[in-house]
Structures are given as C-alpha cells and as structure tokens.
Write a structure and sequence with these properties.
By secondary structure, the chain is α+β, with helices and mostly antiparallel strands. Helices cover 45% and strands 13% of the residues. It has 3 domains: 18-85; 87-141, no CATH class; 145-205. It has helices at residues 31-51, 57-86, 134-139, 149-161, 164-175, 181-208, 240-245, and strands spanning 99-111, 114-125, 130-132, 230-232, 253-255. The strands form 2 sheets. It has a 3-stranded antiparallel β-sheet with strand order 1-2-3. The chain has a two-stranded antiparallel ribbon with strand order 4-5. Helix 4 (149-161) packs across helix 5, helix 4 crosses helix 6 and helix 5 crosses helix 6.
Length: 256
C-alpha cells in the first residue's frame, strides 16, 4: 500500500493564522457587513505578508483561505436555513402532506467551509408510514450522514483514488473536512451504491421509454453514406515478372 506524504511548508499548522475580525459573527449580521470585515482581514493579511520577508506565496494562500472561511461558512449556513424554511411540509418520497409537523429540529453537519446547523421541520407520512424531514431531501442530506453533499462527493472521490487513511489526511489538509477512516469508507461506499442505483434507474427508464417517430409530410432527400474498402482483384494475372522487368510493380489492390 502506498503512503501519501503532504508537504508541511505551507500547512495551517506551520503558518499560525492571525486573529481575524470575522471569527465571532452574530447570526443576524448582514452578509454585506461580514463581507466588509472579511475584506479588512484580507488587507491586514496582505500587509503582514509584505512585511514578513521569510514568508512565500504559499503562506499568504493559507492565511487568505482562513480569512474568507467564516464568510463562506455564514453564507452556506444562511442559504441552508432559507432553503429549509421555504420547503413545504410534504413527504419528499410520495408528495403527501405530513401529519403532526414539528419545527425547530436542529441538525448539525459539516461542509467544506465549516460546521453549520439547520433548523428543520419533521412530520409523519401516513402513506409511507415513516417520519420525514423534507428539508433534508431539499438540501441533499442523508439522515445517517453528517456531511454536506459536497463533502460526501469529495469523500467518494478521494477514497476512490487513494487508500482510505491517506484520503482522510488529504481531505483535511485541502478542505478542512475531518472524516475518520471508518466514516470516509462508509461515505464512499454510500456514494458508490447511490451511483449504481441511479444508473440502474436510468437504464430501466431508457428501456421502457417509448418514442414516437416523426413522419415527414414534405418531400426530402435521403442520403445513405457507404463506407469504402480495399478489394483484391485479378488484374494483370501472370504478368508480375514482365511488369517488374519494366520497372512497374503489379497492383493487386483496387479502391472500390
């Protein structure tokens, strides 16, 4: 088994991120204000980078990613909550209205920008005989999984390209997602099974789909292109030696 080694010259641990003014942000703060604070943090990081002669561009890249992390996380948090609030209390499987809906079910999960929590409505589907959370389906979240769809896709991709232990380390280094080996293996397996079900469903749909051919009522010209091949014919049979004495090579292949 191969082992992946990640350089430590530009990791977050080797470059202590400076304290940013966007660390503790009230949940009701407008994104425009948070964006302005993020811009100030980036300007401060740029000034520190220019003053630190022992830092290269990699150090600035790590610090800049740290500065914008809270802005991206807050945007994802508010978008997820807005989508959850706008999702009607209907069963995501059969579409029937849910009975006994109860709101404010908090669900924390990891995204590639950090941990967020969404408040969702949960209800009972009489037809499916199951408790359903419509916002989970609208957000692409699975009940057993504590990761966003992007996190699940990254886990499946990393686990399919390298050993699970290395994939866990690479994911945390590149995206900040902390997936233990067992969790990463489970998420990758889940995504693989989902892809197989989707492919089977599409194959069945293509096999049962009936298409009606259009009948053209106006005159048209039908062109049928034919491929060509080489055909060996009995040309100049028995004349090979005389032709070669005259400097001509006999041809047996003719283009048809």
């Amino acid at each position: 088994m191969t082992t992946t080694t990640i350089p430590t010259c530009c990791t977050v641990a080797s470059v202590p991120a400076a304290r940013s003014p966007v660390r503790s942000v009230p949940p009701t703060e407008p994104l425009a204000v948070l964006t302005a604070r993020t811009a100030m943090a980036l300007e401060a990081s740029l000034t520190r980078f220019l003053a630190a002669t022992d830092h290269n561009l990699g150090h600035l890249e790590v610090q800049a990613a740290h500065d914008v992390q809270e802005l991206l996380r807050a945007t994802t948090q508010r978008a997820a909550q807005a989508r959850a609030d706008a999702t009607p209390p209907h069963c995501p499987v059969c579409g029937q209205p849910l009975r006994r809906p109860s709101p404010h079910h908090a669900r924390p999960f990891q995204t590639r920008f950090g941990d967020i929590t969404s408040q969702r409505t949960r209800g009972w589907c009489q037809r499916c005989r199951k408790w359903r959370t419509p916002a989970a389906a609208a957000l692409g979240l699975k009940d057993p999984a504590g990761y966003s769809p992007a996190g699940q896709a990254l886990a499946a991709l990393a686990a399919s390209k390298m050993p699970v232990a290395d994939a866990s380390l690479v994911l945390e280094h590149l995206t900040g997602l902390k997936l233990p080996r067992a969790t990463l293996d489970r998420e990758a397996r889940r995504q693989g099974q989902r892809a197989q079900r989707l492919r089977t469903q599409r194959d069945q749909q293509a096999a049962t789909e009936k298409r009606q051919l259009e009948l053209l009522l106006e005159p048209y010209q039908l062109s049928i292109p034919l491929d060509a091949w080489n055909l060996r014919e009995r040309a100049a049979w028995g004349q090979s030696a005389p032709l070669r004495r005259r400097g001509r090579e006999p041809e047996r292949w003719h283009w048809v």
